[in-house]
C-alpha cells in the first residue's frame, strides 16, 4: 500500500486550477454577452429595425465561438471530481453531487437545446420563438452558474448536512439549507453580476476599436450605450454583493479573511488595508517580522466590513491559530469561538471514535458503539482537523490571497468609474482617443479582476477542500503522479491550441465587422 | 416508497441517460463516416451541418449522465473515475476536442484550418465510442479495485477506494469481451449515424452511400455484438445474496432476463426494433429507419443496464476483491438525497418535451445543398 503523498495532491490541485482557469476564460462572457444580445434582439422584436437584428447577430457570432470553449472546459471539471478527487466524491457526493445532477437536468439541456435554435433558427422559426430561445440560452447559462456555485458555496460553508458514521460520509439533511445558504446566495449573485462587467467591457472595447478605425460608428455607439448601462448595473451589484460575500467570509471563514488582509494580529477597530505591500521576509505566521513593508489603511474599515461594527474585534492569523478571543456579533452578543487547539483535539477524537466504532460494530458491542457514536456526532464537524499535523498547514498562501483581493477591489473601483465616465461622455467618446484605447485595454483587465476574485475564493480556502471537514490532502484519488502530469500536459496543450484558435476566430469576426452580416 | 425503491428508480434514470447517450452517439458514428459518405466538400458540409445541430445534445447527455451518476451512486463515481483513470480521461479528451470543432471548423481566422477540426471529429468518433464501450464492458467483466471505508482514518493513505493495477483502467483493453462491446458500440453508432443521414439530409449521393453503409456496419455490429451477448449471458455473472455477499453465478445475466420477464421481453423488442430499423435503412425506400433503430437501441441498452442493476446483481463488480463489488444498494446516495433529486426528476418529461419540440421545429425541412448555399449561418 502506497501513500497519498503531497505530490499527488499538489499536481491534482494544479490540474484542477489550470482547467478551471481555462473554463473561466469563457464562462463570464457567456453569462454577460448572452444578456446583452438578448436585449438587442428584444429591441429588434419590438421595433422591427434590421440594424438591431444585425447587431444581435454580430455579437451572437462572437458569443457562439466563445460558448463552445466553455463547453469544452466544463466537461473536464465535472469528471475531475471523480478522476482526481475520488475520496472527496465519496465523502461529500451525497450533497455535492445533487446540484451537479440538477444542473444537468435543469440548465444544460435548456442551454444546449435553445442554443441550436438561436444560432440556426433565424429562418426556421417565428420571431417570437427565436427571441425566446435567445433568452432561454442565457437563462440556462445563468441557472447552470447557480447550481455549480451552490455546490462551491457548500464547500466553503458546509451546511444542511451531517456526518453519518455508519456510511462513512457526509449526508444531506436539508436541501433548502444547501441551496439557500447565505454563502451560496452571495456567491451566486456576486459571481454572476461581476461577470457582467466582462461582457460590458468586451462590447465597449470591441466597439471602441471600430471607433478608432472610424467604421461602424452607429453600431459602436449603440453597443457602447447598452453595454455601459449593463456594466454599471453589474459593477454596482458586484460591489453590493461583494460586501455581503466578504461579510460571509468573516463569519464562516475567518482565516480566509485574515489572509485577504494580511492580518496576523487582530484588534478592536481593525483598519482595512486599501493598498499595501507585504514583507516577503515574513515566512512563518508566528514570527515577529512585520507583515507589511507599506500600507495605506481605512480606519476601522475591516471591523465594519466583517462585523458591521466600527470597533469590533477582527481576529488575525495568529489569534485564530494560537489564541482564545471574544467576538462581538452584530446583535451585540459576545461569543468565544473554539480555539484551533480545541478543533485539533476534536478532529482527532472524531477519527478515534470512528475507528473504535467500527471495531465495536465488528465485535457487535452495542454499548461501545453507542458511546463512540455519541463522541463522533459531537466532534465530527471538525473531522478534517484529524488530518492536520501542524497548525501552519491551516494558513493559506497569504501573499497570493492578499494581492488577489486588493487587485480585485482596486480594479472594481476602476470599472465603476470607467462605466460611469463612458456613460457620461456619451457620443463624445468618439473623439477621445485615450478613452477608446483604455476601453480596449479594459477587456483583459476585466478578466484579471474576475480571476482575482476566484483566487481569493479558492486559494483563501486552503487547505480545505470542504471547510473543517476535509483538507485537500485527504480528498484526492490515488493515481500515480506521472499520470496526473501527463493528463495535465495533454490539457495544457489542447487548451493552448484552443486559446490561439479562438483569438484568431474572434479577431477575424471583429475585423469583418457587423457590415458582413446578412 | 422506501429506500430500495428510490435506489431502483435512480438506477433506472441513470440507465435511461446511458441508453439515450448510446442512441445519441449517432453523432459520433456519423463523424467517423465523414470521409466515407462525404466524397466532396459539399457533401461533407451537408454531413457536418446535419450532425452539428445535434452534437451538443449528445454532449449534454454525457455530462448529465456523469452528474446523475455522481449524485445518485457516488461510490461508483469515486471508484470508477478515480480508478479507471486513463480510459475515462482519454474519453474526456475525445469529447473536449469535439466541443469546439463544429463551431470553429470553417470559421475565418481559424489558423489551424478545417482539416484539423475534422481530425478532431474523427478522434472523437473513433476514440470516444470505442473507449466508452470498453469502459461499459467492465460493468459486465469486472475491474481490479477494492473499497475499504475504514481507510478514511489512515492518515498516510486515507483513500477509501483503490485500484490495483498500475495501468489504471487501460488493462480493460486486454479483455476480449470489453473489446467486443467497444466495437459493438462503435459499429452501432455508425449504423445510427447513417440512418440519421438518410432521415435528415436530402441528397441523392449521400442517401445512396448511407444506405449501403448501414448494411456494412450492421453486419460488423452483429459480428461484434452477438458473441459479446451470448458470452455474457451464459458466462459467470456477479450475483449478490440477501446478506449482501457477492458470488459468481453461471448464466446470471441470462437468468436475470428470465426472472425479470418484462426486462427480457423489452430487450428482445429493442433488438427486433433495431433490426427492423436497419432493414428499413438498407432494403426499403423508407427514411424512418432511425426511429425504429433509435427506440430499439434505447430499449436494448436500457434493459441490459437494468439487468445488471436489478435482481440481486452487482453493476460494477470487482474481480480483485469480490466483496468490494458495487451494487445499487451499497453505492447509492442517502435516502434523503435520492428523494430530493426524485422531485427534481419530475422535470424530465418537460425537458424531453421541449427538446422534441425544438428538434421538430429545426428539422421540419431536410438539409440540402440549396440551403447550404443560401444559409449564412452554417458550420
UniProtKB/TrEMBL annotation, chain A:
Localization (cell): Cell inner membrane
Enzyme Commission no: 1.10.3.-
Top EC class for this record: oxidoreductase
GO cellular component: cytochrome complex; plasma membrane
Membrane topology designation: Multi-pass membrane protein
Residue ranges that the Swiss-Prot or TrEMBL entry lists as coiled coil: none
GO terms under biological process: aerobic electron transport chain
Pfam families per UniProt: Cyt_bd_oxida_I (PF01654)
Membrane spanning stretches: 22-46, 58-81, 101-123, 135-155, 188-212, 224-242, 400-423, 435-457, 477-507
Keywords assigned by UniProt, alphabetized: Cell inner membrane, Cell membrane, Electron transport, Heme, Iron, Membrane, Metal-binding, Oxidoreductase, Transmembrane, Transmembrane helix, Transport
GO molecular function: electron transfer activity; heme binding; metal ion binding; oxidoreductase activity, acting on diphenols and related substances as donors, oxygen as acceptor
Record-linked InterPro entries: Cyt-d_ubiquinol_oxidase_su_1
Entry keyword annotation includes Secreted: no
Keyword ATP-binding: no
Chief localisation class: membrane
Family, as annotated: Belongs to the cytochrome ubiquinol oxidase subunit 1 family.
Protein name in the entry: Cytochrome d ubiquinol oxidase subunit I
Source species: Microbacter margulisiae
TrEMBL record, chain B:
GO cellular component: cytochrome complex; plasma membrane
UniProt entry keywords in alphabetical sequence: Cell membrane, Electron transport, Heme, Iron, Membrane, Metal-binding, Oxidoreductase, Transmembrane, Transmembrane helix, Transport
The species this protein was found in: Microbacter margulisiae
Protein name listed in UniProt: Cytochrome d ubiquinol oxidase subunit II
KW Transmembrane (keyword) present: yes
Family indicated by similarity: Belongs to the cytochrome ubiquinol oxidase subunit 2 family.
InterPro entries noted in UniProt: Cyt-d_oxidase_su2 (IPR003317)
PANTHER family for the chain: CYTOCHROME BD-I UBIQUINOL OXIDASE SUBUNIT 2 (PTHR43141:SF5), CYTOCHROME BD2 SUBUNIT II (PTHR43141)
UniProt xrefs under Pfam families: Cyt_bd_oxida_II
E.C. number: 1.10.3.-
